[in-house]
Amino acid sequence: MLNADLGMNTWAVLDCGIIKHVDLTLGQTTQLTGFIALGAGWLMGFPPGYATLISIFFMGNAIDQMIKLGFMPQPAGLPGKLFLIVFSAACFGAGTLLYVKPELGAGPRDSLMMGLIQRLSSPVAYIRIGLELVVIIIGYLLGGPVGVGTLLSSVLVGYAVDIAFRVGGYKREAQHMGLGELVRWLRSSTM
Prior knowledge:
This protein is mainly α and 191 residues long. It has helices at residues 10-19, 26-43, 50-69, 78-100, 108-119, 124-141, 148-168, 179-190.
């Protein structure tokens, strides 16, 4: 999304808006908003798991390293830019399923989504799109960059996650193992 140059993805709009007010890198701000989303998801009844903490740590660092190394190509034409947006949404949907399916928690932003999914009877796509739009508004008000790619991404990510959950057989009522349960399980397994 960064290299598509049509606006940032929704959470990056928020992160970029925050960067204008604090001295942090994009990766560090991603970790900060991750902890905030984790807390909100936990308050909604979706406790952090192993995957949640791993995601916060590794994603922020990976973002900073990919920017530093110039890892992703930067297409010149509109078709290439649109492809990057669609491709990133598809990767996001598949990636969300891959780390939610083992039921060891979810990424911090997805923890917030999972809390909403478990509380609301709306389709996953609508919940995710609503969450993305709220984040865009907050990020925009803080000065984050919004473009056509941002709005397109917010809709595509919602549907990509919904489709991945349906194709992957993920059940919205699945019970994830929180960190406390994981520690207890590990202790009992080693004794």
